## 1
Amino acid sequence: MLRWLVCGRVGPVWMWKALLLFVAIAFAGQLLGVIFNKSSVQPAARSIFSSPDAQGPSLGSCQPHTHIMFLKTHKTASSTVLNMLYRFGEERDLHFALPLGYQLGYPLPFNAHRVKGYRGPRAVEFHIMGNHMRFNKLEVEKVMPADTFYFSIIRDPVALAESSFAYYKEVAPAFRKTKGLGDFADNPHKYYDPRLRNNHYARNLLWFDFGLDHNANFSISLAQRGQAMIHQAFKLILVSEYFDQSMILLRHALCWPLDAVVSFSLNARQQKPSGIGGISGSWVGKAAAAAGVGGRGARSQAKALPNLSLTEEQREKLRQWNALDWYLYKAFNKTFWEEIDRFGHTQMEQEVALLRTRREDLARVCLRDGGKPVEAHRIRDKNIRPFQSGLIKILGYELQPGLDNATRTACLRMIRPEIQYKDVLDAKQFPRAPAIPAQPGQQVPMVAAAGSFLRQDLSRTGERLIGGEAGGRTMEADWDGSRLIRGNRTLIRGQEKGRLR
């Protein structure tokens, strides 16, 4: 019947046979193609942060430290170190001892009640403490567990003085009227008055941050007692000039993976001026101008950048002026290299090379333009523009476009500025409560724009509310009377007082 149908109605049999053969060959080819394609499909590219290189050389059977206190000294690359602590803690959902504002009561000696969420000695487990404070061990011990690892970082006092002068030229009265740092070094007593607020930035700043009397007359016995106190309280003192070696020692001390101590330099200042000056064109300048607190900052644009040039004689004068800091630096630089001797110079060189290679690899993946820092106003994402302070410019980074979600999240953590990062962590630890309709006669607690609560009892913090929210910003006064504007998870300090670092 089929033969009759084909021959009579459709065509000859050979045509049907050829068609059926063609269909069979096509089906077999398609089937083989699917099998072949399945065998050649590559797995999705893994994030660079999940590669074996992220762990680094084996550390044996030790367990990572998660109770950590970092004394964040000023102008010592401490913002970069704090970023590492923030990243490590956020990735592992650790609990931070965060300040009520942005510093733990600095420059006043630390008090446990400066910690947000503190409810009494060790009533709450805090894992990491690292924001600016003036060290007070007895009060820190009320907050942090008994097995906490204490460490800090120091810097050559001459280099520190250069950085401090650049950042705090308009803040410290001792710096404000000088022609330059060399002028100050030639006759510091002409400009320095220990009674004036913020002059602690101009003398023995390390000694001050460690909680000691920075105006005390130098003596060997006093310096030795200070060194002994610090040595007893801190298990490791890093040296800013040998940052990579410091990170290797820290990694082994904390038993952390390599990526936890790989970093990009944060809060670095621009070494050379550019055509666009100061903060007037930045998001900080615009916000301050909108709030009416940027007058002094705007006028400062006409001023020249701080003159940091020094002769060798002036450098020696700065060492004498900062004699207590110079003693600390020499003493702990010596113990630092003793640590490296015990660690082994060959192993140190190998691990530093691995760290630097890993940093280059991450910069190539994460950052635009090969990782070159850029001025804040050139950063497209306003949420990662660094806070601008005074006459110098703080540089930041731009993320590489087209990153997958996991890689972008990890890269963003590495470049997120300190102030914005603190706000992110604050919002996670203290989620903003849903709005509750106010009952007649009931006072509703105010909530900051960053998602953190403004305490109703602000007398402990030295901050007071001086205005309501206007345009999404909350006005407060800091300990020194300078106005603060909270908005979009960022702090802007009015009238350029009380610098944050």
Note: The longest helix spans residues 13-40.
## 2
Amino acid sequence: MKKLARRWRRTRGDDDEEDDDKLVLPTFDDIDSRPIDTQEQEEYVRSLEAAHAHQSRQWKSVFAVLLICYGAFLLYSSFQQFMSPWELRYHAYFMEDLKSWMVISAEWIAIIACCLSIVGLLDKKNDHRRWFWYSCVPGSALTIFWLYYLLRLPKFRWDAIWLPFGPLCGAGICLYVDHLLEESSEEVKKLRNYMYAYKAR
């Protein structure tokens, strides 16, 4: 990306020209002063687009796998609570204040929140970000629910802090990663637009 960015130069235009009009593709290679034809410029942009698409798929797959693992853990946790109530330590903290079905329901809501974030990562439509916001709704509800009961404990249990913040942090991280990938995509689109503007001259 940086190598290609160095190939773009600002031409010396009149003072009243717009900044976007000054951006054109170079006509010579910076390294060996070899002329860069239109086909090479097209190849540079396509290589950037392919690299961005590959990195986007890679990062989204990584976070989708992490969310799947977290969802699988929540599924195991809820199953354990159903089969052997209060056997897990982080469940036992709440046995005086919560009923077993409340804990199981909360963990299933967390699983749904994770699934919504996973759908957002794998959805290729332009409005895929809405799935992350959908995930924030149950995630925020769980944050309030678990924090309320954590604060009611005689001693705050830091080893259970993931219960209120796990699903919400998952959605937030997905939103942040998607934002970074979107910014990178916009930069690639700008380079292609500059190339088209150069062709039109």
Note: Confidence is low (pLDDT under 50) at residues 1-25.
## 3
Amino acid sequence: MFQRMFGKPKQETNALTTLDKLNETLEMLEKKENVLLKKAAAEVEKAKQFTRAKNKKAAIQCLKKKRLYEQQIEQLGNFQLRLHDQMILLEGAKATTETVDALRTGAAAMKQMHKATNIDDVDKTMDEINEQTENMKQIQEALSTPIGASADFDEDELEAELEELEGAELEEQLLQPATTAPAAPVHVPAGRQPTRPITQRNTAEEDELAALQAEMAL
């Protein structure tokens, strides 16, 4: 149907050749029109010269020639208008043919794609993807489930034991003696020697010796 309406590729080539021929003819008509315009202007100048020379008959003949040239110019103008109309029609037909060819190519490509992939294949592929996803979830859950001896551990007992450890750690921290904060540096004026502070720290051995002496005194 489209070939009957718009023609085959060979006819498209003929259309391009026709457009070239119309352009050449249009250029030829424009050149002839320019020549006739110059001839008509020349006859007007001759008529003016004969009028100055009081040669009325010759001046009228020049004006008649001018009218004939003007008629030819008008006729050439009509020819050019028809050629323009024909060129516009051919260019429109060519654009329509190219558009239809592009649409036909796109439709054929889409049809081929539909043959390669149909809705049943898509549904089957999605079912396979969902099945594999569910299998992977089951595998991950199986790997994360405790096995062996660790599976018998009671989570409540483990949490209670952890609380006991935390309480013992806190009690141990409270029983430890507070550490003495370091003394702040004392500014000593120039020329004076700073007095060395007497250390009043007692070691564990000194504490035991003092307790022994107290028992002996009793």
Note: Confidence is low (pLDDT under 50) at residues 1-7, 196-200.
## 4
Amino acid sequence: MAGIKALVGLSFSGAIGLTFLLLGCALEQYGVYWPLFVLIFYILSPIPTFISRRLSDDSDSSSNACRELAYFLTTGIVVSSFGLPIVLARNNTIQWGACGLVMTGNAVIFFTILGFFFVFGGGDDFSWEQW
């Protein structure tokens, strides 16, 4: 039952994050949909971690090069998703208020993705590897 509560909580926080993102695009004073390109970063961010967990063995307690590369790539994707709204706002493509809403949505979404890996990343019975 704890897995179901975590799944509902993660879906709720994901909906809140996407609401912030859409508010940054669709409010009448902003009205520009360029910040929706951060959705690509939301899709790409967990992929290196999924691949590294699938390929690496957990029996080795020392540092794993595959996992370290996945962390590096994930960090680059996350930083890029925070940098895109700032670059768009500096070029006056979007307004700074829209940039703030998109960055708030980014923080909520990435904490949701991190929460997903904390809740479902272990090797217990309720794991994402079963999906």
Note: The chain has a mean pLDDT of 87.
